[in-house]
Amino acid sequence: MAVCIAVIAKENYPLYIRSVPTQNELKFHYTVHTSLDVVEEKISAAGKAMADQRELYLGLLYPTEDYKVYGYVTNSKVKFVIVVDSSNTSLRDNEIRSMFRKLHNSFTDVMCNPFYNPGDPVQSKVFEGMVSGMMVQVS
Amino acid sequence: MESLTLSDGEQRYYSDLFVYCDTDNTKKVASNGRVLDLFRAAQLPSEVVLQITELCGATRLGHFGRSQFYIALKLIAIAQSGLPLRVESLNSVKDLPLPRFVVGKNEAEARHAALYQEADSQGIYPGAGVIPRPPGRGLQNKKVTPVVPPVVPVHEVIQALAPASEPQCMVQPDSTSPVVSPHQSPPTSPHSWRKHKRQASGGSSAADRPPAVATAPAGVWTQFREAPTVPVPVPGDGMWSAHSPPPPPVQETWVSFTADTPPSSAIPAMHPSSVQESTTVRTVASAATTNEIQRQSSAYDDPWRITDEQRQYYINQFKTIQPDLNGFIPGSAAKEFFTKSKLPILELSHIWELSDFDKDGALTLDEFCAAFHLVVARKNGYDLPEKLPESLMPKLIDLDDSAEVSEAAVDVGYSGSPVEVTPNKSPSMPSLNQTWPEMNQANEDTAIVHPVPIRMTPSKIHMQEMELKRTGSDHNHPTSPLLAKPPELSEETKLAASLKFVADNAVGEGYSSSDSYTSDQEPITRQRSHSGTSPEALKVVGAAPPPPPPRPHPSHSRSSSLDMNRSFAAGAVAGQPQPGAIAYPPAVPPRPLPTQTSMPHGGHRSEVEGGGGTPLTASAPTTVTTTTAAAAAAATPAAPATSPHLIPHQPNFADFSQFQAFATSDQPSSLPEVDKHSEAAAAAVVVVAAAAAGQVGVLHTVEKPPEGAGPLRTVKSDGPAEERTPTSLNSAKGASGPLAPPPKPVRRRLKSEDELRPEDEPHGPQRSNLIAAVLATQPSIPRSIGKDKKAIQASIRRNKETNTVLARLNSELQQQLKDLLEERISLEVQLEQLRPFSHL
C-alpha cells in the first residue's frame, strides 16, 4: 500500500500526484521531486545499453527512515514513483512491481483516450480509482 | 467569437432584444438583469445558459456586448432546437427558429415571433408527431417546423435518452429538415424539450400565429396552446409512437424560443428572420422532442437502453465516419465527432473511458453507439454513470467482430480487473477485461457471451448412446464379450463425456453433470449386468428394461437416488434382502454415489460412503482416480475364480448380492465421483483384503468383473467376507444406484458392478454372474478347488476375459484421469492468475 503515488512526465513535471491526505503532502511532493534525480541517474546509467535492455522497474530509489521510494520509468520517459511507508515491511518487491504494472496499464489506457492530451494532468476517474486501490486506506 | 451572420429576421429580433436588455443603453448588456431574465425565459437549463454565455464570450468580457448578445441569442435558438451548442452551428444552422423566450409576458414577443415565423414551417415535418403540451405556454409559432433536418435523428436520440422524466413527449417527425447537420448531437437538455413541448402545445400552426399575435397576449398563448392539436396524444410520456403527422404547429412550440421574449420586454417586433429561425429551431426541437419521447419510453424500461431508432441513428452517424460497420473509428475521428457535442473535454474523456471497452483507442459500432448514447444523455442533463450500464455494454464476444466490446463499464472495479486481467499485456495492449462479472445483457445488443457449462448435450448424447447400448445389451445377454465391446465404447464415450462434464462443470455443476452422466451410464451398465444369466439378472432385465432413458434430471437423479439410497441403505443395513427396495433412485451413476456415503449404511458401507462422499465435491479427477483404481483393483486379481462353482451358487448369492446391492444401491448417491472414489477405495481395500482372506478368491472373482470395485469396497468396509462381498456389490450397485432410476435390487447389484466397471457393460452380466458366483462361492472356494478342474479352468478363462475387459477399462479410466488432471491444472492456473491481484 502506497503512501504516495506520482506520475511524472517526460519533461519532469508531474502529471499526477496523490498522497495519503493525512500526512503533510508537501513532504511527499518534495520527496518525489528529489527522487527524480535518482531516476535520472539510473536511467543514464542504464542508458548505455539502450532502452530495450533497460528494465522498466527501477527498484528502490532510496530509503529514508520513514519511507521507501520506488521508481519505474516507461520507454517514453514517463516516470512513476511510489512512496511506501517503511514500517510496511510486508510489501515485497514483486508486489511493488505489480503495482507499477497496474499503474502503467492504467496510464496506457488514459493515453489511449483520444480526449486526453499528452501532457495534461491525468483526470481519468478510472485511473483515480485504480490509484485509490493502491493507496493506504485512510480510516 | 466567430462572426455571426444573422438573417434579417434574426437581426431584427436580436436587436430588439438587445435594446430591451440594454436598459442602460450603453450598448452592452451586463450579465444580469434583463439579460438573465431573457435567458431564463428561454427555458433552458442553467448549465446550458452558462455554456451559452461562455461560448458567446460574455464571460470573457464580463458583459454582453451586442455581438455577444446576438451570439447568445442564436445559441439559445440552437439550444432550443435541440442542437448541440457549438460555435460552428452558429452559422451552419440555417433556418433556425428564433430563440423563444417563454414567459407569459412575452405575448408581445410571441406575437412577434408569430409574425416572424412563417407558416411554412408547419409543413416541414412531414410526419413529425409533436405532442403539444397542454399547459404549454402558448408558444406561438409552431411554425418553426421548417427544416430541422437531421434533427430528427437527433430527436430520436434525445428522446430515447430522456428518461421518463419528460412529461411530454413530442413526437417529432423526423426526416425533414436537412438543415441541421447530422453531426449535431441531441438537444441540450430535456428541460428545454419539455419547455418546448409546453410551448409547442401552445403553439399552433403558423396560421394561428398571426391571429394569435393579433389577439391579446393571453389569447395568443392560449390559442397557441390549443392550437397544437397535436394529433399525437399527449399523455405526456413516452409517446413516441406517434409518427402521425404532428401538426407543425406543435413544432413551433418547441422551438418556441423564438416567440417568447422576456416577459418584461414587449418587443413586438420580431424579426421575420427570427421567425424563420424559430421555425427551424422548432423543427429541431420537435425532433428533440421526439427523441425525448422516445427517451421517455425507453426510459420506461431502462434509462440507458438504446431504442431502435436511436441505434439506427447512431449507426448512420457511425457510417458517416466509418462506412464499414464492422470497422473501427479511430480515436482522433471520434474525438472530433464528439467534441462537436460541446461537452467538456473531461466529460468526453470519461465517456470515452466508459465506452472504449477493449481499450484499443478505437470505437467499434457498439462502442460508438454506447458513447453516443452517453453523450446524448449527458447533453440532456443526465449524469454520466460511473461504469457502463449493462444495456450499453457491447457484446463481449461478438459473433463477428470482437471489437464490439468497447463500451466497457470501466468503472473502478472494472478498471481493476482489466488491468489485472492483462497483466501480461504490454501497456499498449487493450484489455479485454470486461467480461466477467458484470456483463449482463440488458440488450440484445450487448449480449455478453460467457462460458456456460454445456451439460445437456453430452448427456443427450449419452442418453442416445445409452439407448443404443441398452437395446444392444438387451439382446445380447450371453454374449457379454461382444456386448462388452460396444457398450464399452459407449461407456467410454459416456465416461469421457461425463468426465468432460465434470471438468466443465468442475466449478460446481460438474456434479450434476456427472450425475447425469453416471446415471446415463448406470442404466446401460445395468443393462449389461442385467444381461447376466442369473435369474436375478433376468429379473433385472425384466425389471429395468430400458434404463431410465435420459435421466430426467441429472441433478435430480442424485437427490432422488439419495433418497432411494437412504431407504435402501436402511434396508441394507439390516442386511436383509430387500427386494422391495424398489425405491431405487432413478439413474444411478455407475460411479460410487455420494449418496452412498451419505447413507448411513452399515459400517462398511459408511466407509465406502465416506470415501465416496468426500470426493463428491472433490472432483472428477478423484472420481476418475477412484474409478481407475477400482478398475485396476478389479483387474488385478485374476485368480481363477471359482466362477464355475460360483455360478451354481449364483442364484443364492445373486439374491444375496442383490440384497446387498440394494443396500449399496440404497445410496443412490448420484455422485459419480463418490462412487468412483469409493469404488477405487473399495477396490484397493478389496485387493488388500482379498489377499488376506480366503475370500481372496471370491474377491478376485469379484474384482474380475467390473464391479470389482464394489466388492473391493465391501472389503474395505471390512466385514465378513460375505458381508463384504455383498457390501461391495451393494456399494458398487449403490454407486450405480443413484444413476439408476429403475430400482431393482438386481439392478442395483448390477449397478454396483457397473460402477466398478463403468465401461464394462458387456461384462455386466458376466460380472454379476461372477460376483454372484464369487459371493456364492466364497465359502465354497475350497469346495470348488477341490472339485472340478474343468470348472476351474473355465473360471480361469472367464477371469481372463474379465481381466482383459478390466484392463481395457483401466486404460480408459487412466485416460480420463489424465484429462481430468489436465483440467484441474488449467483451473489451478486460472486460479493462480486471479490470485495475484488479490494482494493489493
Automatic annotation (TrEMBL), chain A:
Pfam family, one: Sedlin_N
GO cellular component, one term: perinuclear region of cytoplasm
Keywords: ER-Golgi transport, Transport
Main location as per UniProt: cytoplasm
A biological process from GO: endoplasmic reticulum to Golgi vesicle-mediated transport
Gene3D superfamilies: 3.30.450.70
Superkingdom, natural source: Eukaryota
Cellular localisation: Cytoplasm, Perinuclear region
InterPro entries hit by this protein: Longin-like_dom_sf, Sedlin, TRAPPC2L
Family from the record: Belongs to the TRAPP small subunits family. Sedlin subfamily.
Name under which the protein is recorded: Trafficking protein particle complex subunit 2-like protein
Lineage: Eukaryota, Metazoa, Chordata, Craniata, Vertebrata
